[in-house]
Amino acid sequence: MIHAASPRVYLMLIIGVLAASSGAILITYALQEGVPSSVIAAGRLSIAALLLTPFLLRRGGTEDPRAQLRALSRADLLLGAGAGFWLAIHFATWIASLEFTSVLISVVMVSTGPLWVALLEFLLLRVLPRPLVIVGLIVAIGGGVVIGLAGDPAAGEANTASTGALLALAGAVSFALYLVTGRRVRAKLSLLPYIWLVYSIAAVFLVLLAALSGASFTGYSPTGYVLIALLALAPQLIGHTSFNYALRYLNATYISIATQMEPIFSAIAAALLFGQLPRGLQIVGSALVLIGVLLATLGQRAASPAGSTQSQPETQ
Fold it and tell me: Which of 85, 155, 167, 218 would give a disulfide with 161, using CB separation of 3.0 to 4.6 Å?
């Protein structure tokens, strides 16, 4: 049931978008402090899971999150582990993309998740995309081509822009796999136990990935560690919580559209803070990608039966 929205709801939504938009900026600062992308990803999810744990333990009543987790079957737990794995891949690839390309290209490419959700539903579940979704996919692909033709001045002389764009794209695809894989488990859990479960599993995978890559978790500046903590607090927890709070009062389509402001805010901040001024073709291509994502989002919502439960928006 959606209740009437007050100005506070819109304020929370704005706070959520701004918090989510800070992700790429905080990551870029952490990279400048010499913290490897694998350590940033592992620290972000680990701190977020740890911060959620006290709330998980103290809750009780009819919707006791611990009881919900104990009630999961082995198959559900395996799906939860799969969702956590894909969430780990999402953060590992997307955060790494910011080592190779600008904030604008990274956040625009990773925001294409809804397109890949539609494609995965077609390939895995045989859910035929609606015409608006197909149009959105074509428009977004066209925008990606324009971005590729524009090049990336942030990449310097080395042709690393394509590497960064591909890593961000891998982050979008893995995020779509996370949503599709975790859908069954999410339907059986309320928000708190679900995000605690997938964040904790993702954190384990990311810590292992960082360790296998030879990265150290010690020896960085205090500023680097503060930035990782801020990543866990702002985009991971505040952004996510604000969106889900707003879902009680606003429909998911409205919130999904609002979240498409994230790449715009991130790009503006990057231009002001890092001097990452986009080229004309980059702006045009990015606009096409975002329009394509919006069309696909609207098409997917239109495909949802009236009264069905809409998926929760996520944050970067």
Answer: 155
185 assigned to some structural domain = yes
Angle at which helices 161-188 and 131-150 cross, to 10°: 150
**pLDDT block averages, 10 residues each, the chain of length 316:** 67 90 96 97 96 84 82 94 96 95 90 83 78 85 78 52 87 92 88 92 97 95 97 92 78 72 89 88 87 81 48 56
Residue length of the chain: 316
**Do 140 and 271 contact (CB within 8 A), yes or no?**
no
Classify burial at 157, counting beta carbons within 10 Å of its beta carbon; exposed 0-12, middle 13-18, buried 19 or more.
exposed
Q: Quick check: 118 and 296 in contact, CB under 8 A? A: yes
Residue 241: its pLDDT value, please? Answer: 81
**How many whole angstroms separate alpha carbon 307 and alpha carbon 10?**
23
Q: Could you tell me if residue 313 is inside a domain?
A: no
Q: How many domains does the chain have?
A: 1
- Nearest residue to 25 (alpha-carbon basis) of 148, 87, 89, 107: 107
pLDDT at position 316, please? Answer: 66
The pair of three-digit structure tokens given for residue 200, joined into one six-digit string: 């904790």
Give domain status of residue 70, yes or no: yes
Instruction: Tell me whether residue 131 is in a domain.
Output: yes
How is residue 214 annotated by DSSP?
T
What is 164-230 written as a DSSP string?
A: HHHHHHHHHHHHHHHHHHHHHHHHHS-HHHHHHHHHHHHHHHHHHHHHHTT--SSS--HHHHHHHHH
